[in-house]
Design a protein that fits this description.
With 156 residues, the protein is an alpha+beta fold. Helix content is 15%, strand content 19%. The chain has two helices and seven strands. The chain has a four-stranded antiparallel sheet, with no helix packed on it. It is elongated and about 90 Å long. The protein starts with 5 loop residues before the first helix and ends in a 19-residue tail after the last strand.
Length: 156
Amino acid sequence: MIARDAGSACGQRSGRVHIYNTERPHQGLPGRVMPLTAWSATPKAQAPRPKPDRPRPQRAASTDSPIRTIPVVGGMRVLKLRENGSIRLRKITYMVDGQRAGEDVLVSEDGDPITVADLNGTVLIEHSRPAPGIKYVGNGKPRGRRPRTTVASPMS
């Protein structure tokens, strides 16, 4: 039957939906139960809750480093490498070495090259100043952990 106006069309539709959900068995439901019966038997799910913020790690004050108390000469200063092994100078991140994360390093900014060395004086990286707009300078090594050194198997 075709409805003559919007009100009767809405009434016809709601009647069909009522029959579909309450009287007609559904072929896709186990036991061919009615959709309303299956819906009523389903337990109500808990409302989603936001996860609590993870606590930020507390950094211990590093006062045990003897080099920090010694005045450093001419354009050199001591910095601590970040958790990923990088340092930040003048809004530019320089990747040094992920294996040395958390260590103190000597940084020399005299002139064009920027030199980063460990406290024994071994040069770790040396870079010329990047072009304006560059915010990250890599160390030339691939990202991620270094592969373990493989020892030849006695069976090979």
